[in-house]
Design a protein that fits this description.
Blueprint: H1 11-47, H2 52-77, H3 91-125, H4 127-133, H5 136-149, H6 151-160, E1 161-168, E2 173-180, H7 185-230, H8 239-277, H9 285-301, H10 303-310, H11 312-334
Antiparallel strand pairs: 1-2
Helix pairs in contact: 1-2, 1-9, 1-11, 2-3, 2-5, 2-9, 3-4, 3-5, 3-6, 3-7, 3-8, 6-7, 7-8, 8-9, 8-10, 10-11
């Protein structure tokens, strides 16, 4: 293939996968994910937000709802039949807003997951000190700070792009659209620097924190399990053993959340890195990202299943909530 020849992909193939991945799959999964995270918030509220873990999981549910809502909007405006002039809003402008809002909430979700894993890692190695430092108040401060500080991710991009209504003679109407504020070299340089920091360095930092903390926790749990197998198990079951089992279940649940985060979101970052280095493969970017976006949607949608399977307290509260809901529905039907 000559250097001047442009690589292409059958538009029909791309269109089929975009519609199937982004609409048929991601929209359906995302809708259930939004409902599931709303149920998570309801469940945690019923449990009582009285410890650092519940605060963090509640904050995680809020960020996942934000990511899923933004992703739902992005999926719709990025479908093949959405074009300029089909409405009063330029799909590109809406796509820009939804894309970066989703990116913001995904990064918030990542740092919250990393904090939850780091918190359990500290609790495993220094349990007594952790109880004094990692309090509910500390969790509230950290989670609020994550939401606030990561606004830095959004502000530059929304400064670079200007939104306004513009009259388009071709369609004989005004359309809400977006323009770059300037084409100067300074603007291009700023955008490139932002890309390296927010889209390359930040996600990999989140993955690094999650991988290190998860690995340390898993290694510690294995060592502890081996030690327990070497001692005589003739003692009676007591409250300390019960607390240890509860702590282990909590750790396993948080490690599972961390692993799901890494497995579902790492492919997107890897593909972005590949396309940045090998720009000749940009022609398959929409097709490839339709799969990685679907993985992001799955990640934000499965938390309620993980909690239900691994948390007895969550499962008990969920059972009571669903039982009360069924009774209310039946009583309404009878009356």
């Amino acid at each position: 293939m000559s250097s001047n020849e442009t690589l292409t992909l059958d538009p029909l193939v791309t269109k089929i996968f975009l519609v199937f991945n982004l609409l048929a799959c991601a929209e359906t999964i995302g809708l259930f994910g939004i409902i599931g995270n709303i149920f998570n918030i309801w469940n945690f509220s019923k449990q009582g937000i009285d410890d650092s873990v519940t605060v963090t999981l509640l904050s995680l549910a809020v960020s996942e709802i934000g990511a899923l809502v933004a992703k739902q909007g992005y999926n719709i405006v990025s479908t093949p039949w959405m074009s300029v002039g089909s409405g009063d809003i330029d799909p590109w402008a809406l796509g820009f807003i939804f894309f970066y809002l989703n990116g913001y909430f995904i990064r918030v979700s990542g740092f919250i997951t990393a904090y939850a894993t780091f918190e359990r890692c500290v609790s495993v190695f220094w349990p007594f000190k952790a109880k004094l430092i990692l309090t509910k108040e500390m969790a509230e401060i950290v989670n609020f700070s994550i939401y606030f500080v990561l606004l830095i991710y959004l502000l530059p991009y929304f400064y670079v792009v200007q939104f306004e209504y513009d009259f388009i003679p071709k369609f004989n109407k005004s359309i809400f659209t977006a323009y770059l504020r300037s084409n100067t070299e300074d603007l291009v340089l700023m955008t490139n620097v932002l890309f390296v920091i927010t889209d390359m360095a930040t996600p990999y930092l989140i993955f690094l924190i999650n991988i290190i903390c998860t690995s340390l926790i898993v290694r510690h749990l294995k060592t502890k399990a081996q030690w327990r197998n070497t001692v005589t198990l003739s003692f009676k079951y007591n409250s300390k053993e019960h607390s240890a089992r509860k702590e282990k279940r909590l750790i396993v649940m948080l490690v599972t959340l961390s692993v799901v985060f890494i497995v579902c979101l790492l492919p997107h970052c890897l593909m972005l890195t590949v396309f940045t280095v090998l720009d000749s493969y940009f022609y398959i970017m929409p097709l490839t990202f339709s799969f990685t976006f679907l993985l992001e949607t799955i990640k934000c949608s499965v938390s309620c299943i993980i909690y239900y399977k691994m948390s007895r307290k969550y499962r008990d509260v969920a059972t009571k909530m669903l039982g009360a809901f069924k009774k209310n529905v039946l009583s309404r039907k009878i009356h």
